[in-house]
Write a structure and sequence with these properties.
Blueprint: H1 12-41, H2 49-55, H3 71-89, H4 98-116, H5 126-138, H6 150-173, H7 176-179, H8 184-190, H9 198-202, H10 206-222, H11 233-251, H12 257-266, H13 284-300, H14 302-309, E1 317-318, E2 326-327, E3 338-346, E4 358-359, E5 361-362, H15 382-392, H16 401-409, H17 413-416, E6 419-421, E7 431-441, H18 444-450, E8 454-468, E9 474-476
Antiparallel strand pairs: 1-2, 3-4, 3-7, 5-6, 7-8, 8-9
Helix pairs in contact: 1-3, 1-5, 1-12, 3-4, 4-5, 5-6, 6-10, 10-11, 11-12
Length: 478
């Protein structure tokens, strides 16, 4: 039996670029975990990992932390992920045997799997599963001195197809504004984390917003099928997806979702102006593993594929504990009005009418109307994202918002590191409260006259005025 069909040297450069980009995304993900885990998931965090692993068995959430958890161990795992990812970015595994290169890609996958599976709400985003699914396939791509295995390249296309087509279907089945092409008249203003150019995108003429929506439908519902067409059609489809994702990068902040989608699309492109060196074939055991991987993915794809064609399609769901084959999608509905939770505190001895309330400023989410929305993607500000969900409905925050108030009242240093500005400079306030505001972008005229990016209007309390009781727990003040 000849194995010439098994590899395609024409994708040598695409595989190389794909691996470097994926490693860089791993690096950002581990850095995010290392810098944010302690106040969110640590032993004294808002949703502590030790409490979670006591409630949830290993078989439901496989993780190294089921055997042991300390904040020091979590930090070790996260920073080890940073180190290994950095080595992958530099291409160090390319100088190793196939088995060692595979091990090099297995380590970050296992480490990040352990983090995601105990991450609870803070790690409930679709791009976590997407990184794990893509990272698992990357284990089998082999180092640079071997030809890329065709089956793995096709499995990466299958991920990209489900990602884009699933997102397109959920839109058409969801909000009517996607069908009448008006969703993007609202989206740039109401998206979770606007970026520095979002104000300008929002003020594009209405006909251009309809063009945006129509282009989104075309890229997500039609173009994905061309991924399985012969070249150069597949490359053209991938390049169109890359252009669309760059538009999304410019118009908002979606952590590493857009960057990982671009990375997947790169694996399809076979027009890189780099000539592959003479490449040997894969060892027999590697071929066997790749064939076994393909069979596994085909079997596990049944439920995600069925979900795609279901009228009750769900978004961003894992159908197996290891996030090997998942379903994706976003913005099946688009909010038409933006609300934000603003957390305030005072150090006055009583919360009287004349008390001076000062605001905590978050790093990414809108707060001060005069502050331009920042660019932080592909870095992920997890607390800021959950604050957006909490503004949609307080049920998203029932498990952690009172705890956040308690941390602010105690001036917890780790929690304050998640914020851009602490109005008390490390001191303890006496009372904390949270109010809901209606936010909208300023008009061009308002922007010229005031210099503000946002206009806001108070809507009412979200969290009652609270203080720390004698036992250190929060107490509501009537």
């Amino acid at each position: 039996m000849t194995w010439e069909w098994f590899t395609d040297p024409g994708y040598w450069a695409a595989r190389l670029v794909f691996q470097r980009l994926l490693a860089a995304i791993y690096l950002v993900a581990f850095l995010t975990a290392a810098l944010q885990f302690k106040p969110l998931l640590g032993e004294h965090g808002l949703l502590p990992v030790p409490d979670f692993v006591r409630r949830v068995p290993f078989r439901r959430a496989p993780s190294l932390f089921h055997w042991r958890y300390t904040d020091r161990l979590f930090a070790t795992v996260a920073w080890a992920g940073v180190v290994v990812s950095s080595a992958l970015v530099l291409g160090l595994p390319d100088h190793l045997p196939v088995w060692a290169a595979m091990l090099g890609w297995t380590v970050p996958w296992l480490l990040y799997q352990s983090i995601v599976n105990v991450g609870q709400l803070w790690y409930s985003f679709g791009w976590e599963s997407l990184l794990l699914e893509t990272g698992f396939l990357a284990i089998f791509l082999g180092p640079a001195d071997t030809a890329p295995p065709v089956l793995v390249l096709w499995l990466l296309r299958w991920v990209l197809f489900r990602l884009e087509f699933g997102a397109g279907l959920i839109k058409m089945r969801g909000d009517a504004c996607w069908r009448d092409l008006t969703c993007l008249c609202y989206h740039h203003e109401t998206q979770p984390m606007p970026g520095p150019l979002s104000w300008y995108f929002h003020h594009l003429p209405r006909p251009l917003h309809k063009v945006e929506a129509a282009a989104s439908h075309g890229t997500q519902l039609v173009v994905p099928f061309a991924l399985f067409a012969p070249q150069p059609a597949a490359s053209a489809a991938a390049l169109l997806m890359i252009a669309t994702q760059l538009w999304l990068v410019a118009s908002g902040n979606f952590a590493w979702l857009n960057f990982l989608t671009i990375t997947l699309a790169v694996s399809v492109v076979d027009i890189f102006p780099v000539q592959a060196p003479p490449l040997p074939g894969s060892p027999w055991w590697h071929r066997g593993l790749v064939i076994g991987l393909t069979v596994l993915v085909v079997v596990l794809s049944y439920r995600p594929a069925r979900n795609l064609v279901s009228r009750r399609q769900v978004m961003n769901t894992s159908f197996d504990r290891l996030h090997l084959v998942n379903t994706y999608g976003a913005f099946g509905s688009v909010t038409k009005v933006r609300h934000e939770i603003v957390i305030e505190a005072t150090d006055d001895p009583r919360p009287a009418e004349d008390a001076v309330w000062r605001e905590y400023e978050f790093k990414g989410k809108p707060g001060d109307p005069r502050r331009r929305p920042p660019q932080f993607a592909p870095y992920h500000l997890r607390l800021d994202w959950l604050m957006w969900f909490a503004a949609l409905s307080t049920r998203y925050a029932q498990s952690w918002l009172p705890g956040l108030a308690e941390k602010l009242l105690a001036a917890d240093p780790e929690t304050l590191k998640l914020l851009r500005h602490d109005p008390f400079h490390g001191g303890r306030p006496t009372y904390v409260r949270a109010n809901l505001y209606r936010y909208r972008f300023t008009t061009p005229r308002e922007r010229r006259e005031t210099g503000a990016w946002w206009v806001r209007e108070a809507r009412g309390p979200v969290l009652r005025t609270t203080r720390l009781g004698p036992d250190g727990a929060v107490v509501a003040v009537d």
